[in-house]
Amino acid sequence: MKKTIALLTGGTTGEWVISVKSAATIAQNIDTDLYEVYKIMLNDKGWFYEPADSVKIDIDKNDFSLTLDGRKIKFDGVFIAIHGSPGEDGKLQGYFDMLNIPYTTCDALTSSITMNKGYTKAIVTGIENLNTAKSVQIFKDGNYSLDQIKADLKLPYFVKPNNGGSSIGMSKVTHADDLETALDKAFNEDTQILIEEFIEGREFTVGVAKLDGEIVVLPPTEVETAKEFFDFEAKYTPGVATETTPALIREETKDRVAQIAAEVYKRLNCRGVVRIDFILTGDEGDFYFIEINTIPGQTATSFIPQQVAAMGLTLKDFYSRLMKETLNN
After folding, report:
1. 220 lies in the same domain as 187
2. Residue limits of the ATP-grasp domain (predicted)?
3. How many domains are contained in the chain?
């Protein structure tokens, strides 16, 4: 018998555009022999289902149900494809936990913590073979000294909103005089900021998922861009970045990043599919942790679909196994 699944898309941040594209990929590839899928839009105007031949139908938030043609539809599980808030920061996860409806992502606590780059770094520090850049975390109304930050950290450094995605509000500072401008830009996005020393090296991203009860590390992707860093334009504009999947690195390096990625997944108590970003220094020397994305993009050109294909899996099989893992837990 088919399971009834809600595919949740949209969101309340600028990342909703990517979310809609991710949901389209998932909807096209999920096994309709196994799952009856209803795409639910969540935005500032409400939560609703929009059939192709009808007007929007509101979701009853009391029990996350849908009434269609006089029939009440309740969902066996939720595939969350919302990047940013409220899909990635734990809000929706807490809601579904209270309703006892399983979902595809990390739980509320992990989702909430991993949205904060500084807190995440503190948890993954100490993992074997993994390094973290020296950093300072500051608060908008806190007592911080620009002179002290400049004394503590070596140029250049990255200034990042602590909560957020798609590199929005992020700057690379190469001259100390530019620090204040970079802080103003980041504080427009968040009340907490992470200032990190720049690590010179190659950038990699690797997907990790739990499938059939086992942690599976997907083939890594190397990301190269002519821009100062992998910013919003480089992430979402075709041709700005070069992505190589699987990455051209030695077998020992592949084994090392797989070991690190699996350990990060376990240390942060992850579920579903996540994506972890690293910098690799020197001649395939040390891996440095950048960040984790607990609801990675699933657009046709996103990293996870690339890595799934490189592993020899179809997206249909991958998404079906993700849903099976969700519903069995």
Report:
1. no
2. 122-324
3. 3
